[in-house]
Design a protein that fits this description.
With 506 residues, this protein is mainly alpha-helical. It contains 20 helices and six strands.
Length: 506
């Protein structure tokens, strides 16, 4: 017992002599910030490339496959083109070789078959970039959870039209199929006419259809960046970092497919209403944090601190996972995530109720800095509460010489505070330590809110020319709860354990 006390005193004395710039927690935070910002900024410059076109299309394809298993039908792309297929393919060929427009060689042996979904999306994306169109683009997915009478009628009419133009069928076969489909079509039209007379049957007519596009912000690059940075920044062997990245990043991708599929079903049921918006912009932010924390902690337990012996076979390593001492950390990680959900939900709701008050405080502080420090002629400012639980609230500033107010949504920016507080509350440390860490972390996050408002408003015109960086910073704000949590509990939760297992560190 006395040996343990001596060892703990040695650790504490060495900690007191440790220079601040040698702190493992500080190194972790610095590496984490550099990697996340670099990752997100770099991706902003990749958005307008065929590489990103292919990534978004792959994501849309996998999401469509899942939705086809859930609903009646899912259509990927399917948009009509103004040009014939061979003309579109000629343009794609020209752009692929770096030409501005197709030449004679680009028309050679070009098929007249209908464009594939990838060709449709690639043509739309590249054409928009060549023309300088700034609207957000992405592969288009039309999900029919349940088709309405109108869609069924249109589908049958298309089938009849295709049969009439089919050269492989004999005339008796055509007549038989057309008669069959005409009977079904007549019945559907009768049902359609009756349903139109009853307002309560509107969904029976229109169906449960939800069209959506998968833009770059839907690609889960943010959570991949968070996990990638957390793994890279943690002090351990390179091979263990590589294993975490190889396993973790695909998991983030699969979770995003689940997210898109889930939102598509909600959008079809809710007709893209407020519940869809609420789940899309707010609930899934907390879910992402839960998932990143869970996978990262699992990597810490099963890879970084896994006990392995020389010559251990793959089967022995797998069997080791099912041992009691290995399953216990997995259970603890699961309990940690459940606690986070139970704590963060009420905290977020309370915080959203306080958004009008907190937003007003932000406006007063940031407005004072802009007016008295930076010389911006602000006449007035305030907050307009709106939306479900104030989630559509906006702050605004009236500036002398500007005809219109400068307004900005506030809820998504400030919602990163409750997740941080929740993570600290469920971490096993003393209550005094919890309160101190919550105080310091809250101050840092709030200063970040003020700094963001000041910089965006002061340099708004300049930032419009370099949109990649501010968007990356906005996405970085979503990582702050996770980053700050690790930073402030690094010593208690991770550093002491590293000292007990020095062989695990790089």
């Amino acid at each position: 017992m006395s040996v343990d006390k001596d060892e703990s005193k040695d650790i504490e004395s060495s900690d007191s002599r440790e220079k601040w710039y040698k702190s493992p927690a500080l190194r972790f935070v610095l590496v984490f910030i550099i990697v996340v910002v670099s990752f997100l900024t770099g991706y902003r410059y990749l958005i307008k490339t065929t590489w990103n076109d292919r990534y978004l299309f792959t994501l849309a394809t996998h999401t469509s496959w899942v939705l086809n298993k859930i609903g009646e039908r899912t259509i990927l792309e399917g948009l009509p083109q103004n040009l014939p297929p061979e003309e579109c393919r000629a343009w794609l060929s020209a752009w692929a070789r770096g030409a501005k427009q197709p030449g004679p060689e680009d028309y050679i042996n070009k098929s007249k078959d209908p464009l594939t979904p990838w060709e449709q999306w690639s043509y739309r994306a590249q054409k928009a970039r060549k023309q300088g169109i700034q609207t957000k683009l992405g592969p288009r997915v039309v999900f029919a959870l349940r088709e309405g009478l109108l869609q069924k009628i249109t589908s049958l009419e298309e089938k009849i039209k295709n049969i009439q133009g089919n050269l492989t069928l004999s005339e008796p076969e055509k007549a038989s199929l057309i008669a069959k489909y005409n009977t079904e079509l007549q019945l559907l039209r009768v049902q359609y006419g009756e349903a139109q007379k009853d307002p309560e049957k509107n969904r029976q007519v229109s169906g449960y259809i939800f069209p959506f596009i998968i833009i770059s912000e839907c690609g889960a690059i943010e959570i991949m960046a968070i996990f990638f940075a957390a793994v890279v920044a943690y002090p351990t062997l390179i091979r263990k970092k590589l294993l975490g990245i190889i396993v973790g990043i695909p998991l983030m991708y699969f979770v995003n497919i689940f997210r898109l599929s889930f939102l598509a079903v909600v959008g079809a049921l809710n007709a893209g209403g407020r519940w869809f918006e609420f789940l899309h912009y707010y609930v899934w932010q907390a879910v992402y944090i839960v998932f990143v924390v869970a996978v990262w902690l699992a990597w810490i337990e099963f890879v970084v601190y896994a006990e392995s012996k020389e010559g251990m076979s793959f089967r022995e390593r797998v069997m080791q996972i099912f041992q009691k001492r290995t399953l216990l950390p997995l259970f603890q990680t699961f309990v940690f995530c459940v606690k986070f959900i139970l704590v963060v939900v009420p905290l977020v709701c309370i915080w959203w109720a306080l958004i009008p008050i907190y937003g007003w405080i932000l406006v007063q502080i940031s407005g004072s800095i802009l007016k008295f420090v930076m010389g911006v002629p602000i006449i007035a400012g305030g907050i307009r509460p709106a939306g479900f639980l104030n989630t559509a609230s906006t702050i605004y500033f009236s500036i002398q010489g500007y005809e219109f107010e400068k307004a900005s949504p506030i809820a998504l920016l400030v919602t990163n505070l409750p997740p941080f507080i929740s993570l600290i509350l469920i971490t096993r440390i003393s209550w005094i330590s919890r309160l101190k860490k919550i105080l310091w972390g809250a101050i840092i996050i709030m200063l970040g809110h003020i700094l963001f408002i000041v910089i965006v408003l002061r340099y708004q015109e300049v930032l419009k020319q370099y949109s990649e960086l501010p968007i990356a910073v906005i996405q970085f704000y979503l990582t702050m709860p996770f980053m700050l949590w690790i930073a402030v509990v690094f010593r208690e939760r991770f550093l002491n354990r590293s000292r007990k297992n020095p062989s695990q560190n790089s």
